[in-house]
Amino acid sequence: MVLKIEGKVEKVNGKELSYADFVENYLDRNQPVILTGLTDDWRACKDWVSGDGEPNLRLFSDKFGSSRVQVADCATREFTDQKRLEMSVSEFIQLWISSSSSDNGGADGKPLLYLKDWHFVKEYPDYVAYTTPVFFLDDWLNLYLDKHHMHADPESYQERNEVNCSDYRFVYMGAKGTWTPLHADVFRSYSWSANVCGRKQWYFLCPSQHHLVFDRYMKAAVYNIFENVCKSKYPKFEEAIWLECTQERGEIIFVPSGWYHQVHNLEDTISINHNWFNGYNISWVWDLLLREYHEAAGYIEDLRECDEFEGLCQRNLAANAGMDFRDFFIFLIRFALANFVILYQITSSKGFINLSSSEASQFFLFNLKNIKCITLKMKSEAGWQNCGIAAIDLAETIEDQSFVDFCDSLGRTYSMMYNLIGVNFSQIKTLLDHEQTSVLYPYGSHIYNPDDLITFLDHAFKLIGCES
């Protein structure tokens, strides 16, 4: 099938692009872009690549061969994705090498295998393979998961459960011809993907056209845009207008929220990929959760009168979307408190202010206002009322070392983005101990529901002299 391709993804020198320009032109507008010049000093771009520019497969086998990884069989469809196999990295490398003499895309019966979603950073924290570019540092998802589990209930947390993922930083490795079917990213997050070596071909469809790749009932999307797509099942597919681009070695592509994309490896390729969200696209996450919740409820509509109905909906939501309402709400509370604590510290009359500009303060306010906006949306959702949210005690949270470490990590990250000078984020707990901490939550330190979080946020805005 011939696609309607009517645009190219813009390519920009990342060294000449300011963070503010990236936000204005791509992040806020939700537009894809390829950034060049940002990977030159990465260890991965030296160690992981042989002298001929090919993947250094021996290094992976020798240094990381015992790691257990998920490998997609690109020739075998399983439901809406490719069939997944589990094996060690060394086994994957052996299979890759053994089939390297074949250049026919698996047509000879040998599997076309693509290592995906390897949590390399979590598994090898001391091996600094790369440095996240400043454009992608405002990463609420991974900063949070570095200090907290997404699922607060320990019974629902399993270390190797893909849903209860430890982070969303991945390494991908695949031979020429491996590919990823049409999809939009997890949580409708942003993603970025850097080619350590090799080349990729990308095909993008903007969110306003995503209905064109779904069936009449908006339940199933096209799997492969280059197959003979059934016109009766996908009647509007031929109307879709695509963007395409070729991503070269050393280039990083930014994938905005909700953009469907299909990706093909034109050469043997290694890439580093992150999924993340922040204040600019947090609404996409809530919209997805809400949509998935109503779908989950619809599947078990006949059980609506059952006492366990809402609990079943939430468990199905967590399984399908990666988090449930409770997980998301606790996430928002902690992020709201951390942003407020840092902002309160840097704007406090007791010192610690030495900002290069007010840009950082406006950034924290932006985060808090977006959290309030999402919380107002949650409040209006009827299904929220019975989902069994556990209380969060702000006073206990501030005393919790994991939260203090989270604030420290968040503060250091934002320091790199906005050049915050003279603020010691590792001392947040001590500083708060010296404050009358009750001033932070005069209406009670417990948050049970969206109304409580809105009350806390409104009080926080008053404390820092800002209108909500």
From TrEMBL:
**Which stretches make up the JmjC domain?**
121-293
Name any one Pfam family assigned in the record.
Answer: Cupin_8
Spell out the SUPFAM superfamilies in the cross-references: Clavaminate synthase-like
The residues that cross the membrane are none
| Any one Gene Ontology BP term | regulation of gene expression
What InterPro entries does the record tag this protein with? Answer: Cupin_8, JmjC_dom, JMJD6_ArgDemeth/LysHydrox
- Record keywords, A-Z: Iron, Metal-binding, Oxidoreductase
Q: According to its UniProt record, which cofactors does this protein need?
A: Fe(2+)
Instruction: Give an example GO molecular function.
Output: catalytic activity, acting on a protein
The record's family statement is: Belongs to the JARID1 histone demethylase family.
In terms of PANTHER family, this protein maps to: 2-OXOGLUTARATE AND IRON-DEPENDENT OXYGENASE JMJD4, ARGININE DEMETHYLASE AND LYSYL-HYDROXYLASE JMJD
Q: Indicate what this protein is called per its UniProt record.
A: 2-oxoglutarate and iron-dependent oxygenase JMJD4
